[in-house]
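A note from the maintainers: we've had questions about how concatenated examples are separated. There is no special marker in the raw files; a new sequence line simply starts the next protein. For clarity in this README we add a label.
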Amino acid sequence: MQITDVRVRRVAKEGKLKAVVSITIDDEFVVHDIKVIEGEKGLFIAMPSKKAMDGEYRDIAHPINSGTREKIQSTILGRYEEALEKEPEEEVQEA
């Protein structure tokens, strides 16, 4: 599996949500709405999810193993850091 494209949309509002990301895998499959979140231990990603009938949020799409999750997270966070360096603060999108 190769992550062939990463699109980062930074959000301007205050809070833990820093960006919303779309990734393309092998130039064939896209996953939208991956969130970059600032947690107590630093940045992490949250896979796209929806609220279930019981009120809990469940991932719509997610990696099966921790190695794949780490590969996706490190790629996304690397691109997010690049976006921080390239874009001035006033050019970020409103969420």
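[label: protein 2]
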Amino acid sequence: MNKIKFLLVIVLAAFMACDSEEVFDEQEQLAIDRQLITEYLADNNITAEQIGETGIYYAISQSGTGDNAEFASSVYADYRGYLLDGTEFDSGTIDFVVGAGSVIQGWELGFQELNKGASATLFIPSKYGYGSSRQGTTIPANSVLLFDVTVVDIR
């Protein structure tokens, strides 16, 4: 019983220590990210399609062939990830299953718009990337992520 009281005191103290002015508003951040992406697209004269109301955009630079990737498809792709200011944070080749949760949600949704051989740029709001979490020293919290991707194969 004393352990439960102790845990309740710790939880209550942590709750009281939270500054109400620092409460993260995911919808507000999504609106900011959408604005940043649409400004980037306009400034760079890029035509892109939005995926539903997500705020994720994609611009196909080379069309592929066949069916688009879908839930449970295994996608093999080359990629380069960078921030809006051009800072590259990752590149390489990846093999993942759409819907397995092994990649960021922006990829789960974005790759479903692409087929084998397609090359595109994905513009991903922070909500569908790493959110309010900082990733290492390169990706600040609430960062819009851009990925140049090429779908090598879909199985």
